[in-house]
Amino acid sequence: MSESHTSHPLVQSYDALVGKLQCGFVPLLLLFCRLWVAWVFFNSGLVKIASWDSTLYLFELEYQVPLLPWELAAYMGTTAELILPVFLALGLLTRPMAAILFVFNIIAVVSYPVLWEQGFYDHQLWGLMILIVVVWGAGPISIDKLIRSKLS
């Protein structure tokens, strides 16, 4: 067998297809992940500030945020939900912001035991989407890419 399996026409066609998908599909997947997660967390932050008394009540009596006083946790959590998604949606400082949001997502699950029954799978999905962005970055449809191209 002198011919390498990588020069087989079927393998070459597959490689070409994968290359096209990476050029078109992967950037859209990264943008989709960024925008979906940003929308979910930003909306949660908007709900919290719209009914701040309820938010304080939840942080005092329902959520069990480790290591932080409940009032500080309420302010920090709401701030994180309003700021981190903006960076993620724009694709600005994407990897570090997504990493922080990934940890935030874990803390949300740990802090609110009711999620284990009702919203745990949503948080798993969001965690996976955030992790994809942490690993692959923002992709070409982002301010990070624009800044990188201007600096090079």
Average pLDDT over all residues: 90
Compressed to H and E, one letter per element, the order equals HHHHHHH
User: Into which percent range does the helicity of residues fall?
Assistant: over 70%
Beta-strand portion reads under 5%
Ends apart, CA distance between termini: 46 Å
Quick one: biggest sheet? Answer: none
> Roughly how many Å is the radius of gyration?
20 Å
User: Could you name the ranges where pLDDT drops below 50 across 5 or more consecutive residues?
Assistant: none
Our count of helices gives 7
General form: elongated
Structural class label: mainly alpha
- List the quaternary state of the chains: single chain
* Total beta strands: 0
Molecular structure report:
By secondary structure, this protein is mainly alpha-helical. It has a domain at 8-41 and 81-151. It is built from seven helices and no strands. Helix 1 crosses helix 3 (70-90), helix 1 packs across helix 6 (120-136) and helix 4 (94-111) runs antiparallel to helix 6 (120-136). The termini are far apart. The mean pLDDT is 90.
How are the elements arranged and paired?
Elements: H1 9-50, H2 52-62, H3 70-90, H4 94-111, H5 115-118, H6 120-136, H7 143-151
Helix pairs in contact: 1-3, 1-6, 2-3, 3-4, 4-6
Question: Which features would summarize this protein structure in a list?
Answer:
7 helices, mainly alpha, 152 residues, elongated
What is this entry, summarized?
This protein has 152 residues and is mainly α. Helices cover 80% and strands 0% of the residues. The mean pLDDT is 90.
